[in-house]
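FORM 7B - TANDEM STRUCTURE REPORT

SECTION 1: FIRST PROTEIN
SEQUENCE AND TOKENS:
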Amino acid sequence: MSVRMRRLKADYDKLCTVFMQNSKIRIKKTLGNPPEKYQLEYLVTGMEKKLDGKMTLRSNFLVEITLTGSYPRMAPQCKMLTPVFHPNIAPHAICIGDHWAAGEALVNLVVRIAEMFSYQSYNIKSPLNGEAAKWAVENQDRLPLDTFDFNALLNVGEAVGRRADGSAIAGDTCANCGKKGDAAEMKVCVNQHVACSGCMLACPVCASAVCLKCSLVTCAACKESVCAKCSYRCGSCGQTACHRHAGPCSFCKQVRCQDCLVDCSKCGQKACVEHVKKVRYSDGREDYACAACVQQAAAARRATDALPRPGP
């Protein structure tokens, strides 16, 4: 078997091990034995722009990867089979980076594409889609769109496989401290890391099992460490808050921390600091009112001023 054929077989074996049928990344079709062309399905939250210009979230993407006769010396050719809105992806090409190393495994490239769809990875300096690059800059507080740790599949201490019901099978090495033990003593966290009991904890918000290798975020309000999916970065002040201490503005719908949300003194709706205004009432009292109530009050004053004044 030639060097190239051995490489193709090794790539295929690794893909089959890492991306099982119940994975967020699935092998849909292959061509060749061993395969030289793949069709992969990504069950990842990303962005799509509809024909009418409306932006919407999308949860599945199809990608075709072709390993040319020059592979692995030359990079694989990657193209989209479904729409996606991303700075570094065009319908005919996926920009996988300026440098390709022949030693890079195909499975790493497949994971990198998943990180791109989820906006965990993007480059706005040399985009294929300038409009998407501008959108990414304007919506940084919403990113990433999917917080799943795709790289966990490649880490030491990863789950070694899956059972028929889709549950993960733990290995015998803790991903955080490196402790060796019986696989039965190890647990698999929400990001597919294997960890011993001393390195495993529960997210205080969603109760998901997370380990000390996971990306944990400290809430500025309660100071508790929560998993990435239960945290938000406030678009007004930049602080990070958990679900319990953050919420959406009733007007722009962007999530803000509790310090940057104000209850309107008239209607009670929560509004961010960009959509409230300090007002003075007739009794001299000052308070905050939302944009809608300020507009209604202004319209009422204009209507009153337009009424004819009584004669002398």
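SECTION 2: SECOND PROTEIN
SEQUENCE AND TOKENS:
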Amino acid sequence: MQVVYHNITDLTHLKWTLSRHSSGTAGSFLKSYEQADGIKYYYKLSNFDTVRGIFGHECINEIVAQNIAAALKIPHLEYDLIYADVEIDHKQYRTWLTRSADFKMAGEHKLAFETYYEINKNPDEDVWAFIVRNRLEQYFYHIFILDYLICNRDRHGANIEVLEKKGMYRMAPVFDNGLSLMFSCYHDGMAMECFDRRKDGPVNNFVGTMSLSENPGKKG
């Protein structure tokens, strides 16, 4: 169940690493993790650069996206929303961020779907044929529908994961939906007002096309 922590949480002990935008826009996402009470937690900030500090609303997008996924009964990673103090390069910031628990079960290993496909595909087998052969259509239809509804621009091959344990495989819950909705409208009311809510693409999809509206109607 999603939890929103309104009280200020001290997370200044966390160490942050950069995850560059795959879309080529300015700035970086910062991620961190810690082990607490036997659970590995992952933290994610919205956009960051050394001039503006922490800005944007990708963490809120994650919450909106997971609420839509929950309403549609699409298996998804659950994020908590936390108001916290963090420290980056010896400078403190107060911001909203998301926290999620590790979705791997004991003994499981994760693999990017892009890598899983490259290792296991038949010669000259395209991605969709591979998905059909492995009976994964329903999982990807769920992704197509969710990404269409939230205008997700960044479902690349590492934003879909496969979990493996002793030769048994399962698909990870849908995760990493921050580059969606109006993520590019940073502190700009006019940009939000002018945003094309019917925008279709181009998007960075590993499966399907660069068109969000074409993918839900994909035929095998």
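SECTION 3: OBSERVATIONS ON SECOND PROTEIN
The chain is about 20% helix and 30% strand.
Confidence is low (pLDDT under 50) at residues 20-26.

SECTION 4: SIGNATURE
Preparer initials: ____
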